[in-house]
Amino acid sequence: MTGHDLASQLLPLLGRSLDAGFNVFDVMHHGTHEKQLSNVFRWLFEVGGTHNFEELGQHLFVEQVNQSLRPESALPLVTYAVRQEVNTAEIGDGGDIADIVLESDASVIVVENYGTSDGHGHGYDGYLRFGQRDGKTATAVMLCAEEDRSRLTDGWEQAVVVTYERFLDLLVTELNRDAKYATQNPEQYAFISQLHRKFASGKERMGSKDVLDFVTAMCATGEAGRWRERNQDVAAERFASDLAQQVRERFAEGREVLQIVKARLRTYGNTIVRKQVNESMGKEFIDKVTAGYSGIYQWSINFETSEERDSFGEARLQIKFGPSAWFANEQDAHWKRKVEPGTADYSRLFLTRARNHELRQSAVTLHEVLDGLSPTDTRLRDEIIDLLQGS
Questions:
Q1: Sequential DSSP letters for 23-83
Q2: DSSP secondary structure string for all residues of 197-229
Q3: Does pTM surpass 0.70?
Q4: N or C: which terminus of the chain has fewer CB atoms within 10 Å of its end residue's CB?
Q5: Could you tell me if 192 and 269 lie in one domain?
Q6: Into how many domains does the chain fold?
Q7: Dihedral sign computed on CA atoms, order 181, 187, 193, 195
Q8: Is-contact 45 57, C-beta < 8 A?
Q9: Tell me: the pLDDT tens digits for 256-283?
Q10: Helix H or strand E segment including 359
């Protein structure tokens, strides 16, 4: 692949300028802890606050919650009192602090604010019991930057999930529809706009999905092999000399996002796919799920099965993605039954079975893994069973 061809495929993905621009949240290092963002969201939810848009923020949030509820369970659009750091535990049970609580005469919304959709030890049932005191209707809400359904456990899978991006997109859209708000409230508007850019729109840093597109282009142009080098800093500098500073940034960010995908896929494989396959096989076919390889092989999820390891040294059954899938499909001579390089789509997962020296392309995409695969999604199970049956 020539430098010109490489540039033509990669440069369209390098949209963000090297100068990210001023953002108050970067200067203040604000938003690195959930309490800091809870302070901001409480301000947005309060009616009559110094934001000067009255009930708009609160009503948009309640409407977002209602979208996930049955019509008969919809919350009323009334005025809610807003509190922070509320102990939801019963007397004598220690403490379980909810980040934000919105309460009206008849309804209570108990909010857990966290970076990802993960209850991280907080009691979903306790949140509901707290809200239901005095006979009120209660709803538990997970407010988060990223939604990953596979991490919603211990009752939190029943919670309503509202992401920063969905809420802030709606808020900024509504403020922009008001021709007077920005001119009459320039300081508040600037603050909310920077909040939106920092925590929702991804303009300050390329979004994770865009970085995955960059990784896919690296595979398609034959450049994914750069990730196999032991010294990643040296590899990044060499690549940066070809396409300058922006490519170097995407290279580093691509590795970070690959690690996020790897962690989520390993968790999903261990908690969901393993159970699904074992139930279908009628036995404990998959013993455990690991991800211990390094180098070009590190983006592989291993399903350790009751079969012995292949003499090749790889687990009998794997999910590969990104550079590991590219290397297996286009350079590794062990795999005999592959996907045609011209039709291979490296934005998707790949399944391998070492016994058959076979590699198949999955219908599941990396973007879907990044978003969080549903526990009821059976595509990977079906593809693994089909691969095991050799059809």
A1: -HHHHTTTTSSHHHHHHHHHHHHSTT-TTS-TTHHHHHHHHHHHTTS-GGGPPP-S--EEE
A2: IIIII--SS--HHHHHHHHHHHHHTT-GGGGG-
A3: no
A4: C
A5: no
A6: 3
A7: negative
A8: yes
A9: 899 999 999 999 999 999 999 999 988 8
A10: strand 358-365
- Residue 290, CA distances (Å) to 66, 269, 287, 325 in order: 39, 9, 10, 17
pLDDT digits (tens, 9 = 90+) for 204-250: 455 566 678 778 877 887 778 878 877 877 777 776 666 665 566 67
Length of the chain (residues): 391
> Does residue 154 sit in the same domain as residue 28?
yes
Strand duo 317-320 + 348-353: pairing: antiparallel
Cα Rg of the chain (Å, integer): 24
pLDDT band at 4 (very low <50, low <70, confident <90, very high): very low
Characterize the bridge pairing of strands 107-116 and 137-146.
parallel
Residues 300 and 325 in one domain: yes
37 and 184 in a single domain? The answer is yes
Same domain as 265, residue 237: no
The letter for the amino acid at 68 is S
Residues 54 and 153 in one domain: yes
What are the tens digits of pLDDT across the range 317-365? 999 999 999 999 998 888 899 998 778 999 999 999 988 889 999 999 9
- φ/ψ of 334, rounded to 5, equals -65, -35
Give the single-character DSSP code of 337: B
Distance CA 211, CA 163 (A): 20
Tell me how far apart the alpha carbons of residues 188 and 388 are, in angstroms, rounded to a whole number.
58
Same domain, 41 and 94: yes
**Alpha carbon of residue 342 to chain centroid:** 29
Q: Show the domain range for 71.
A: 24-201
